[in-house]
Amino acid sequence: MDIEQLMMQSLQLLGLGMGAVFIILTLLICIIWAVSKIVPEEQPDVIPVPSDRLSKPGHQHIAAIQAAIHKYRKSR
Amino acid sequence: MDIEQLMMQSLQLLGLGMGAVFIILTLLICIIWAVSKIVPEEQPDVIPVPSDRLSKPGHQHIAAIQAAIHKYRKSR
Amino acid sequence: MDIEQLMMQSLQLLGLGMGAVFIILTLLICIIWAVSKIVPEEQPDVIPVPSDRLSKPGHQHIAAIQAAIHKYRKSR
Amino acid sequence: MEQGLLQLWASTGLYNLTIGQVFMIAIGGILIFLAISKGFEPLLLIPIGFGGILANIPVAAIAGPEGLLGILYHSGIESGVFPLLIFMGVGAMTDFGPLLARPSLMILGAAAQFGIFFTLFGAIAMNFIPGIEFSLADAAAIAIIGGADGPTAIYVASRLAPELLGAIAVAAYSYMALVPIIQPPIMKLLTTEKERQTKMTQLRHVGKLEKILFPLTLLLVAILLLPSATPLIGMLCFGNLLKECGVVDRLSNTAKNELINIVTIFLGLAIGSKLAADKFLTPETIGILLLGIVAFSIGTAAGVIMGKIMYRFTGGEVNPLIGAAGVSAVPMAARVANKVGLDANQHNFLLMHAMGPNVAGVIGSAVAAGVLLAIVG
Amino acid sequence: MEQGLLQLWASTGLYNLTIGQVFMIAIGGILIFLAISKGFEPLLLIPIGFGGILANIPVAAIAGPEGLLGILYHSGIESGVFPLLIFMGVGAMTDFGPLLARPSLMILGAAAQFGIFFTLFGAIAMNFIPGIEFSLADAAAIAIIGGADGPTAIYVASRLAPELLGAIAVAAYSYMALVPIIQPPIMKLLTTEKERQTKMTQLRHVGKLEKILFPLTLLLVAILLLPSATPLIGMLCFGNLLKECGVVDRLSNTAKNELINIVTIFLGLAIGSKLAADKFLTPETIGILLLGIVAFSIGTAAGVIMGKIMYRFTGGEVNPLIGAAGVSAVPMAARVANKVGLDANQHNFLLMHAMGPNVAGVIGSAVAAGVLLAIVG
Amino acid sequence: MEQGLLQLWASTGLYNLTIGQVFMIAIGGILIFLAISKGFEPLLLIPIGFGGILANIPVAAIAGPEGLLGILYHSGIESGVFPLLIFMGVGAMTDFGPLLARPSLMILGAAAQFGIFFTLFGAIAMNFIPGIEFSLADAAAIAIIGGADGPTAIYVASRLAPELLGAIAVAAYSYMALVPIIQPPIMKLLTTEKERQTKMTQLRHVGKLEKILFPLTLLLVAILLLPSATPLIGMLCFGNLLKECGVVDRLSNTAKNELINIVTIFLGLAIGSKLAADKFLTPETIGILLLGIVAFSIGTAAGVIMGKIMYRFTGGEVNPLIGAAGVSAVPMAARVANKVGLDANQHNFLLMHAMGPNVAGVIGSAVAAGVLLAIVG
Ligand code: NA
Ligand code: NA
Ligand code: NA
Fold first, then answer.
1. Which end of chain B has a smaller Cβ tally under 10 Å, C or N?
2. CB of D369 within 8 A of CB of D232?
3. For residues E170 and E82, what is the distance between their CA atoms, to the nearest angstrom?
4. How does residue B57 score in pLDDT terms, banded at 50, 70 and 90?
């Protein structure tokens, strides 16, 4: 196959390929959009914002600590 | 092979198979029973029941907390 | 091949093999030594020794506990 | 350009899909749907369902001998490697303690294997229906569905009737997932309220040494009496020995986690490769699905009836419900026995008591598989 | 003894090394150096570089058909298994949420594939240079470098031009590592300061059901329109379904951790086996390296230009910089878009907005790969 | 029915077991027993022992070419893949720091390889015994037991004398397990109390860069001087580079955990396949077991004697005991050196000092393996 023919083929592939990519991704956009309309909206899980600024080390630790302090306070 | 013959064979397999299953599992029962008699009985590991109801978050945490509180108490 | 010939060959292998092992490992010693001279010396990471003897259960826990106690102390 | 467009069009699914493929893709989707929304054995039905979809895609030949699924099937299932590795992982996960604590309950795990051999007979009887023609090997492979044990069914089917493997695997896992629906009516039909309320005494403590000796003992018995079952039983025992011996935890952890996960993914996809429309959509498949549910039901019934016999003989010390757990389907069947027991008596916890027959059922079906492989294979 | 010494001497590297092998060992060392000291895609360039060194050792034949690298290459890359398993792992890691939140941005991931097809044309044009002779299959395999997606490039190259695989893989991963250097000048050249300062509105929350449906939808579209892309897209979707369905976490965790790590090690070493001097040191390799950078640049430019078009059409709602992320190179390209955005406006966080086009780029290059495989393969 | 019963009976182990198989099953049991109750290299001896049992089961043909063990052997050991992957994992686990801190101690790891070459001579001398006929390749494969390094022994044996692999692997791992029993008497015999009490100065700190450069340097030396050792040394260095470079921790963690665990299970089972009675119960096996202990003892002695020489030359700065660690058997031999040192002086901690010669021994035996493969292979 001579180079001109190959170049024609590759030009053709450029057209077909970009066409296929755009068609398929556009179709996907439409479907995703449609699905998002059909599917009942879901509330994002609200993460309770701890009022305590100390929350970093993990809730369980804090809970344990508060319990310990509470107990200590009572035991006096 | 005609179907009647196959059915005879499958009936025979039913007998042989259930026989083998029962013989082998019964033999296992006997062996397990014998082994359990021979092997010296082992005491189950007794897990010490913590008197403190707070033990959920893990002993180390509690230990740390108690130490901290103890230290604080002393430091006053 | 008769046994004498094999024994000659194995003696020869003994010489060649131990020679190769010593040459290669000696060469490595030289290279390692040279590299250690060329490479700038690196200070070992000094691990800060905590003055607090309580540090076993992990710094974060301690931090949390101290913060909790601090808060409690203030809140009184 | 037109030529290229035509070539591209001729390579689309729209151009190439057959009705059968569309149908099978839908079946794959349904398996996935059931697995996700109903929790039906998701670890296997999601890979199988997805593999089934991939296997029915035209042009791509993913299930062909050079496609990913074909390669996985050839190297892992045709060879028997995957089910054996799964069995090793199952061994590394299984605690035989409850079985060792009360070994007599193993007899329930034996009785439930009646489902297998009855179904073998039923599969042969199906040959009277025109259009269905099961050989003895086919019938044996189908019957093993009654063992309610996935890897055993796949291993036997891959040896005796590879062309039926897809349907057998789907049937086995589907019915295992359906255990909570299939078993309770049978259990209630065959037992009285009083029987179901039977409480059982606490299990004795089983020592470490007994647990270490068990896999070795089991293997020894299998070697002496039924070597054809030793690939399956051997790997089960190997995994269990790794677990119980206590000195190679890094191996047993890998066997029951990463390794079994990897093999599960590959196994599921590879089974999916057998859901290709041209192989799956046959009268045989319908026969297999029918026989599978018969096998499960008969196995359950046989286990419960043996439970009733033990109830009678022990003077009411054994709750017949735990006989249903003898089919295997670990741990689902034991949970079902527990639940039906709780329905009859709120304070009746049968779970640990049902675990013994449950794991005995695994051994029982491996033994049954050994018989089938020895005589039919 | 002299004979033995001679035999030993004749087996040394000093006696056997060719100039080409020395050169390639140095190249392997450079890849490793760049990976370690500059952080250039170390997960792949270290195994590839090391594999390249091993492949160029005389006498040992590690890359030969019976050597470790040769075995890994034959069983994992020639078969297509490794890149597909990597794709499964990538699927199990990828969150398609940002793409689902604003699907219109997928068009940016489509535009960036222009780099692939333009390079295909460029590779063919290179045939005018004497000494270089690329077939259409070669050109397609080279062009896919423009997809900026490692496993896709390896998969396509292993199918269309296995003899070029080493150079293509090295080019693909090297340029992916160089994204922070290649892309910013192009992005700045094509956009105005005002465009770069564009802030984007927060993404909507995407529900679990949408995330579960997406991989199935994507696979369905691929089945209907482009089955030749389904091995790649199928495994991506499978991994993603494992992740999103929420009922098989142990499988998705294994797919995205241990399994992908194992395959990455093997894949890297196996690619290294294609760096053997006699196969790698050819004029074609230089051509491939040149074409690769062209592909990346054109892809980036095309993405940015499409971004400018969207900026115009949406009345300034879309920052054109995120178009550059459409080439894939996940997540590097998205981070680059974010960084260039921050340079223009300190409060402009584009990362999540760029993730949509970024993962769309993965899909886009898989689609492009499908077209190439369908027409050229 | 009688026919069926006869067929079933003819398939039992009771009918088929040979005396040799019973004996080998017992051997497998003993290996497992020693591994569990005495802690003898359990990670390998449990899989090897269990594999040995499985390999001697009649009828099932688990070690045959289509059985699980046969498949594992063919794909993992015959190919050399498993020992090389183990070596990669070993590399990812090994800290060469102590060796780099005091490189001169490597000479101890060189001296201990005398065990290998002396045993080679001994194996050939055994040919004077009627009934034993070792070729040079056989003798070399047996001699490598003296390297006290499992994967090296398996790799060399699989290349030079696959029919002896079972006995060689069992001997290598058994004697490695017996190091705490074999070595101390030899060490005490050859050293004076004063020598054993020698304290050594603390090791210097070794920087990160030196640690990264070492595997590359080692590989380079092997490439130049002994390419036939590069499969082993290369994978060791690759694993170590993954560990030390610090940018691919997910790969090095997988290499030294899940991957090495999986390969260890498979390798052990596959070696077990070579314990089949008809292949294992030969006069050669007894010869191998004898030669193996000779190899270990001579290697230990050579290391200690070189230690004494260094003690003399350095004016008492080197404790000769650490010479025994030069045989490899990482980290057991280093621990033994430490223990014998503690016995002589309660405050004498030699562990880190012995680690240098210990890992040098691994390199030394890989070098020795390279020589054998280059000249005999
Ligand atoms: Na069962
Ligand atoms: Na792309
Ligand atoms: Na050694």
1. C
2. yes
3. 16
4. very low
**What is the per-residue pLDDT for B58?**
44
Cα–Cα distance for residue pair D168/D173, rounded to 1 Å: 9
Task: For residues D170 and D150, give the distance between their C-alpha atoms in angstroms, rounded to a whole number.
Answer: 9
CA dist C44 → C48, E14, F206 (Å): 12, 38, 8
Q: Is the peptide bond before C50 cis (omega within 30 degrees of 0)?
A: no
d(CA D77, CA D88) in angstroms, rounded, equals: 15
Residues of A with CB under 8 A from a CB of B: 60-61, 63-65, 67-69, 71-72
Per-residue model confidence (pLDDT) at position F8: 85
A25 and E107 Cβ atoms separated by less than 8 Å: yes
Quick check: B25 and D222 CB within 8 A? no
Chain pair C-E, CB pairs under 8 angstroms: 10
Domain boundaries, chain B: 1-41, 44-76
- Average pLDDT rounded to a whole number, residues D175-194: 94
The answer to whether F and C touch (≥3 CB pairs < 8 Å) is yes
Q: What is the DSSP letter of E248?
A: -
CA D28 to chain E, closest CA, distance in angstroms equals 11
Task: Flag if C12 and E1 touch (Cβ within 8 Å).
Answer: yes
Distance from CA of E12 to the nearest CA of F (A): 5
Amino acid occupying residue E277: A
Is the Cα dihedral F149, F150, F151, F154 positive or negative?
A: positive
Per-residue model confidence as pLDDT tens digits over D203-255:
888 999 999 999 999 999 999 999 999 999 999 999 999 999 999 999 999 99
Nearest-Cα residue of chain D relative to residue B8? D121
Which has the closest alpha carbon to E62: E318, E373, E274?
E274
Question: Is the peptide bond between D331 and the residue preceding it cis, with omega within 30 degrees of 0?
Answer: yes
Measured in angstroms, the CA of C24 and the nearest CA of chain E are apart by 12
**Cβ of residue D62 closer than 8 Å to a chain E Cβ:** yes
What pTM does this model have?
0.92
Domain extents for chain E? 95-255+278-376
Q: Name the DSSP class of D125.
A: H
Q: Nearest to residue F224, comparing CAs of E53, E268, C13?
A: E53
At E28, is the pLDDT very low, low, confident or very high (cuts 50, 70, 90)? very high
